[in-house]
Amino acid sequence: MRHWLAPLVLCSALAAAADLQGYTEEFPPFNYLDKGAPAGLANDILDRVMARSGLSIERSSLPWPRAVQMTASSPNSLLYTTVRTPAREAQYRWVGPYDDCDVVLIKLRSRKDLQIGKLEDARNYLVGAVRGAAASQLLQEKQFPARNLTLVSDEEAVLRMLFAGRTDLNAGMFLPHGHLARQLGLPAQEMEVAHILQKGGGCYFAFNSKVDPALFARFEKAFEALRSSGELQQLQLRHGGRKGS
What we know:
Blueprint: H1 2-17, E1 20-24, E2 32-34, E3 37-39, H2 41-53, E4 57-61, H3 64-73, E5 77-83, E6 92-99, E7 103-108, E8 127-130, H4 134-141, E9 149-152, H5 155-163, E10 169-172, H6 174-183, E11 191-198, E12 203-208, H7 213-229, H8 231-238
Parallel strand pairs: 1-4, 1-5, 8-9, 8-10
Antiparallel strand pairs: 2-3, 5-12, 6-12, 7-10, 7-11
Helix pairs in contact: 2-7
């Protein structure tokens, strides 16, 4: 018993020693694990922020609802990648954005019958979204019919439903959808934006509102240095983002 408890005690001590706890999900190309190591645009930014600020950040990749819960219960923590929406504004302290992160409705090009000029046009179709994500929250705020909204736990599930014809439209961000489709061997080129739900909400690091002000200031200063030096834009372009986002 003592032998297998020792590594757990050591891991807990290392996590407790970190200045900040970072909670995220598998959401490529922004954040994901590559052979067990943090990868993606947001994680690359965190690496640079830590190098500039001297902060230590212990990162955990969890299902999104769990990541949200852990951030809420941990004062010195941040949640990423988080789309900034009016409903979330007062819940967090924000650093970013590092991408425009438009929230959109996505369809397959073969679905010529779907002509979505406004959200009301989609009300008769089945829409898939990740539970608790910005897209599902926006649809619920806009009183999208619950009977036509299929909520699932992760991005892969909602993507597979679209290609299997189990949903007519998906709600989310286009860049991550395309990246994941290519990873899964699905024809990413068959997807297109049907409607923009929210233009340019932006993707951010969202800090627990009770975060230590000194830690937050060190993080924010390092991030702004990345932006002003042009290093942030280089990272954005490397990961397929849009120039100037």
